[in-house]
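Q: Please design a sequence for this.
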């Protein structure tokens, strides 16, 4: 691994996959800058990751705040080598059941903010002489739609396509852009459903839809984040969309 001394900006870093990935990176010597909306979650997360961790609260669907977050991350660590676009929201409903405000909210927080943050971070990667890793967190629902989830499926499919476009556009600068597509993962994005169903019933309902028989953990995804962030491990991988889904997308 060649991650020691690198610097990462992690969106959605206060909980879930973002926090698990930030922790995995920090354990390998990466200086991490967390961004999200909830100041309390970010402060608590940063306190568990060590003295090399900084954070800032921001609405990353706003271009001014997205640029400010990138500037603060670069200022805190002197550079940005790794960008993990992990922040996102979930949403249910067909197009007939999804109001325009809800549609915009889902797209702003799953697709637009990736565009805005990446647009703000990539110039810093290029300024350092090129190179770097951008990792976008999509979903198996961007690969294989299900009923009653139109906006979320469409936004994640758009993110997969955006990943491929970014990979082509920035390959000459040595910047690798890849995408992870998790299946159902036990994270706060499902908190409301878990609370309604109860954790064990939720696991028993959603675990069996995956051929490996269980829902995922944030750590399952974080290990792939580390691999894609590491130049030694993944130097010839860009434009890839990698499911981490217990076989869900295979069928």
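A: Design:
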């Amino acid at each position: 691994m060649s991650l020691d001394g690198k610097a990462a900006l992690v969106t959605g870093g206060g909980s879930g996959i973002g926090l698990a990935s930030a922790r995995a990176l920090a354990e390998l010597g990466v200086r991490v800058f967390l961004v999200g909306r909830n100041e309390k979650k970010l402060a608590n997360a940063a306190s568990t990751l060590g003295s090399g961790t900084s954070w800032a609260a921001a609405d990353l669907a706003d271009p001014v705040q997205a640029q400010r977050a990138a500037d603060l991350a670069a200022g805190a660590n002197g550079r940005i080598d790794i960008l993990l676009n992990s922040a996102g929201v979930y949403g249910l409903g067909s197009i007939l059941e999804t109001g325009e405000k809800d549609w915009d909210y889902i797209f702003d927080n799953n697709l637009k903010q990736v565009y805005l943050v990446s647009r703000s971070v990539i110039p810093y990667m290029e300024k350092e002489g090129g190179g770097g890793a951008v990792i976008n967190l999509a979903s198996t629902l961007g690969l294989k739609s299900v009923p009653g989830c139109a906006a979320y499926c469409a936004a994640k499919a758009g993110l997969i396509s955006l990943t491929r476009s970014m990979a082509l556009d920035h390959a000459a600068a040595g910047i690798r852009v890849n995408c992870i597509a998790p299946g159902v993962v036990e994270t706060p994005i499902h908190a409301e459903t878990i609370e309604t169903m109860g954790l064990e019933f939720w696991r028993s309902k959603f675990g069996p839809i995956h051929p490996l028989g269980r829902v995922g953990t944030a750590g399952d995804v974080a290990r792939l984040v580390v691999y894609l962030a590491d130049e030694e491990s993944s130097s010839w991988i860009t434009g890839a969309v990698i499911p981490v889904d217990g076989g869900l997308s295979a069928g």
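Q: Thanks. Anything notable?
A: The domain at 7-188+217-240 is CATH 3.40.50.720 (Rossmann fold). The chain has a mean pLDDT of 95.
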